[in-house]
Amino acid sequence: MVKEKQVFFCKECGYESAKWMGQCPGCRQWNTFAEEKITVKKRGNSSASSGEKPEAVSITEVTSAQESRMFTNIGELDRVLGGGIVRGSLVLVGGDPGIGKSTLLLEMCKCLVADDEKVLYVSGEESLSQIKMRGVRLGAYDEKILLLSDGDLTNAEQAIEKSSPDVVVIDSIQTMFVPELDNVPGSVTQVREVTSRLMQVAKRLNVAIFIVGHVTKEGTVAGPRTLEHMVDCVLYFEGDDNSGFRMLRAVKNRFGSTNEIGVFNMTETGLEEVSNPSRMFLTGRPVEAPGSVVISSMEGTRAVLLELQALVSDSNFNMPRRTSVGVDYNRVNLLMAVLEKRGGINLSGCDCYVSIAGGLRVNDPASDLGIICAIASSFRNRPVGDDTVIIGEVGLAGEIRGVQSILQRVKEADKLGYRRVILPKAGQLGQIPDLHAELIYVSTIQEALERI
């Protein structure tokens, strides 16, 4: 039996409701509910009717197969994917319009066909001539790259079964539709059904499928939240509109770490890898400028050196202004309170601005000591040495606490030519061979301020 019912979905987050509501309880947005028809089918138990019943087995009896990966030869992309593309996986790539999602995937196709892999590129937004024009500009001009311009998922499934590709790119999931459903393409029902069928195709044919997803104004992938739960990997392509740098970040990965980032540079001929992000983020750093310090942040297994800037000035208002870019606002206020109480610096009548140069956002607690030193440097108008890197987490008592991966941070600083590293005394390192940098251990913020 087939039964139709009316439901309401939030266009921003996919929240489902039986009635219309002015404000979505999920994302707290107004006037985002849209009415859709869904079809409910009552099905019998196919396994029971056929006489086959699934049985639970011990984990020790399950045979584990070695995952098969394909290398894209794009080091930053392979790093974020956990070492390459896993066959039979479903990967969702999200990002703002024009950020470079299609460019990245087309360059991935170019590198895959160079290794004798077969690729099918399905687009519901562009014609074949438009895709070819972009492919010629990027150098993706090979007979092993198959193109299909159709939004009908049934035709795409037939093309996948007929051509037997190794990798499939769907651009984008919001333009694909299932003819059996009456909903318009991009609706919550269509997106959920299309993703479910693509997942079955990926597992059944053992083909890796990349799907491009549009994002909402909050920066998350449009559609229901179940969309991110259904796929194996969720990648976000981020970047600043005013710069050419792009960052690829994994927020979900069943086959690798979710802390890795890939850094790219957008040029006229496409995306270029940035193999040394530390040198890129430190380019253009001012010399002997008060309030400018170098900190170390761990992004997955990679240590990245960043420039942190602080500006402290007298306030003209009764309530001083506090602003932070790239670091947590509440964390900056907490560290300013510790600096006032434990460091003896009165900031109650000063405006304070803290920013990470380069557009990267840092959540690593190892940047705490760098924030305090940058604020103190700007307040006293005394620059920190250009050859100094500051690492350490700060507690409410003013103590400097140890951080993770301290040895890797020190080696990255030494590789880039820094000769002084301020470190927490907790977790003190032993003798490091071939190290040119001087290691200065501190236990309190008063001691750190005296040493710098």
Structural class: alpha/beta
| Oligomeric state | single chain
Cα distance spanning the termini: 76 Å
Task: Extract low-pLDDT stretches.
Answer: 46-50
Tally the helices: what do you get?
12
Instruction: Work out the number of β strands.
Output: 23
Helix proportion range: 25-40%
- Which percent band covers the strand fraction? 25-35%
Global mean pLDDT: 86
Shape estimate: globular
Side-by-side strand order of the widest sheet:
8-7-9-10-6-11-12-13-14
Largest sheet: 9 strands, mixed
What do these coordinates show?
The chain has 452 residues and is an alpha/beta fold. Helices cover 27% and strands 28% of the residues. The protein has twelve helices and 23 strands. Strand 12 and strand 13 form a beta hairpin. Residues 46-50 have low confidence and may be disordered.
Helix and strand layout, with pairings?
Layout (H helix, E strand, L loop, with lengths): L1 E9 L5 E2 L15 E9 L4 H4 L19 E2 L4 H7 L3 E2 L3 E6 L5 H14 L4 E5 L4 H11 L6 E5 L3 H11 L3 E5 L16 H18 L2 E6 L12 H5 L2 E7 L5 E9 L7 E7 L2 E4 L3 H5 L10 E8 L2 E13 L7 E4 L3 H15 L6 E7 L11 H13 L7 E3 L2 E2 L5 E2 L4 H10 L4 E5 L13 E5 L2 H7 L1
Parallel strand pairs: 6-10, 6-11, 7-8, 7-9, 9-10, 15-19, 17-18, 19-22, 22-23
Antiparallel strand pairs: 1-2, 1-3, 4-5, 11-12, 12-13, 13-14, 15-16, 16-18, 20-21
Helix pairs in contact: 9-10
